[in-house]
Amino acid sequence: MDTHQLILLVSKVKTKIDPKVKGEKVTFKLSIEGKAIIDQLQQDVPMKKIEEEASKKIKEQVLKTYKEGLKIDSDVYRLSEVLYRKKLDTWKKVEQDGKVPLDKDSISEVKVKIKVMHGGKNKKEPVFK
Length: 129
Known about the structure:
Elements: E1 6-22, E2 25-41, H1 47-71, H2 79-86, H3 88-94, E3 107-118
Parallel strand pairs: 2-3
Antiparallel strand pairs: 1-2
Helix pairs in contact: 2-3
């Protein structure tokens, strides 16, 4: 499926971040759920395929944004704050200058589940012209 042939509007996004601690190593599991409607579809594609592709694309974007943030020493998903709020004792052990040291492996898992609710009459035209 060509990603340029499909436009989805994703809303009602729920995110959950769970810190996992193994010894001195802290990793984070991200879970993202959202509902989507089809804004534009130029060919018939099974809904299951649309949901899978949307989930895959969002996961890629989440990881890319995280890695770009690391380049400028930015905790874009506020992982240090999550650890502070959920596992204060661990945060106190690993924090450096008030934040948790992060690297490319700090996010151990990203699960994305997008549910396509409807697309009107399988819209093949934009909603707004």
